[in-house]
Specification:
Elements: E1 22-23, E2 26-32, E3 43-49, E4 54-55, E5 64-71, E6 73-78, E7 81-86, E8 90-93, E9 99-102, E10 109-116
Antiparallel strand pairs: 1-4, 2-3, 3-10, 5-8, 5-10, 6-7, 6-9
GO molecular function, one term: metal ion binding
Pfam family, one: Cupin_2
Domain Cupin type-2: 47-114
C-alpha cells in the first residue's frame, strides 16, 4: 500500500478500469484510493456505465457507501427492492445491505461512489 499523501489530481490522470464483478462497460476511475493516493479510510471513484452495464449484486460487511448520480438513469437494487435512480439522486448504503446497480437507460449512467473504510473483507 502507498503511504497517504496530500495531492491535487486531474480526472484525466487516472485511467478507466473495469473492477472485478463489474460487467458490460462498467468503468471507473479510482481518484482517491489506496493505490492512487495511499488513502486508508476513503475510496472515491467516478463511474460511467454504458447501457446494459452493471455490477454484480454484493454486500459489504463494514463499509458504508454513498452513490451520487450525476447523469443518466438506471436501476439500483437494495436488499431485494429495485428502484430507478437518475440525475441528482443520492443513495446511502449501510453495512450489510445487498446491492447492485445497472444502466437500464438509453445513454451512459455516470455517478460518484464514496466508500469507507476501504478494506473490510
Amino acid at each position: 500500500m502507498t503511504e497517504p499523501k496530500s495531492v491535487i489530481r486531474n480526472i484525466a490522470e487516472e485511467p478507466w478500469q473495469e473492477f472485478p464483478d463489474h460487467f458490460g462497460g462498467a468503468l471507473s476511475k479510482a481518484l482517491v484510493h489506496p493505490t492512487t493516493t495511499g488513502a486508508q479510510k476513503i475510496d472515491y471513484r467516478i463511474s460511467t456505465y454504458q447501457p446494459m452495464a452493471y455490477v454484480k449484486r454484493h454486500v459489504h460487511k463494514v463499509q458504508e457507501q454513498v452513490y451520487h448520480v450525476l447523469d443518466g438513469e438506471g436501476l439500483m437494487e437494495i436488499d431485494g427492492v429495485t428502484r430507478v435512480v437518475r440525475k441528482h439522486d443520492v443513495v446511502f448504503l449501510a453495512p450489510g445491505s445487498w446491492h447492485s446497480i445497472q444502466n437500464s437507460g438509453l445513454g451512459d449512467l455516470t455517478f460518484i461512489v464514496v466508500t469507507t473504510p476501504v478494506t473490510d473483507e
